[in-house]
Amino acid sequence: MSWIVERFADVQGWLFQSAVLPSLYAAGLMDFAEPAFDATEFVLLGLLQIMLVYVLLRPLEAWRPAERWQDRKAVRTDVLYTFLNRVGLVPIAIYAVLTPLVNAFDAQLRSAGYIPRSLEDLIPALAQSPLAAFCAYLLVLDLADYWRHRLQHRLRWWWALHAVHHSQRQMTFWNDDRNHLLDELIAGFWLAGVAFLIGVPPEQFVTAVMLTRLVESLSHANVRLRFGALGERLLVSPRFHRTHHALGVGHEGDRYGCNFATLFPLWDVMFGTANFAYRGTETGIRDQLDGRDYGETFLAQQWLGLKRLIRRA
Ligand SMILES: [Zn+2]
Ligand SMILES: [Zn+2]
């Protein structure tokens, strides 16, 4: 592991020295050298994640696809989403907007006399085992994610944005990052807010986010894969999440859908939204069958999402 970390640092250093620094110098932006060094790490980590997911999941999709398509054009837009999200401008923009928001939230709480307590304060036994503490944080973050997702389907204005994610008829592992930018911003604030309230240490937070993203990529993969009767209940599988995206199933009924969990199906079982029985493979939103247009390109999807939001809010 340390070998990988060292090699990663070497590549980061080399890239920074040979490409980033000279560009900053040429542009007269040497004041930004420090954030640019961090950004280089971020971009490299993002590329590494995409490579890892591609190497692991593309062969799986080719081997046992849940669905076959002649034309994979629609998937290309999702590839763009992934690059924009993992190595591109989206996180930088979100970080820029989010930091003052979270700081203001923090200041508000503190001036109201509230000082966040970590889970270790509440359950002292967790302080003895970093792994147990990490698992506890992961559980709480995932529970928060479950309720965010329920609301994304329940509230009309939020669904107007979340529909961008569900409008893909060709669901693959690239689908994970296909979201409305405003939705990304709200989700980021939600997650960072919860992490702040329960005092997740920064390095544990980063690990939790990376792990979650890996599982999310797998759960969107176009692959015929179940984890078995028990496994399906322990971790979200491609089958389980495909049912969440299923045409005429994933956004229906009095709970506005089923299988909302990101990591642990336990929440769906507990709150009565689990569906382990469905076997269909087709994904999308029901009104797409009536010809409703959610846009094919990145810009069209973002613009139509905004229009839906304004009409429904
Ligand atoms: Zn959803
Ligand atoms: Zn999804």
Per-chain topology:
Blueprint: H1 2-26, H2 33-63, H3 73-86, H4 89-111, H5 119-122, H6 130-154, H7 156-166, H8 181-197, H9 202-220, H10 228-234, H11 238-244, H12 266-270, H13 298-312
Helix pairs in contact: 1-2, 4-8, 6-7, 6-8, 7-13
Bound molecules: zinc ion (2 copies).
One zinc ion binds at residues 149, 152-153, 162, 166, 244.
Offer a concise description of the structure:
The chain is mainly α. Helix content is 65%, strand content 0%.
Report what the structure shows.
- The protein has 313 residues and is mainly alpha-helical.
- Helix 1 packs across helix 2 and helix 4 crosses helix 8.
- The model has no long low-confidence stretch (mean pLDDT 90).
- One zinc ion binds next to loops.
Characteristic terms for this protein:
globular, 13 helices, mainly alpha, 313 residues, binds zinc ion
Give the rounded overall mean pLDDT: 90
Largest sheet geometry? none
Poorly predicted tracts of residues = none
Per the principal axes of the C-alpha atoms, what is the gross shape?
A: globular
* β-strand number: 0
Cα gyration radius (Å): 21 Å
Helix fraction by DSSP (H/I, runs of at least 4): 55-70%
Ligand catalogue? zinc ion
Strand and helix order? HHHHHHHHHHHHH
Strand content: under 5%
Give the CA-CA distance, first to last residue.
49 Å
Please work out how many helical segments DSSP would assign: 13
Structural category: mainly alpha
Number of domains: 1
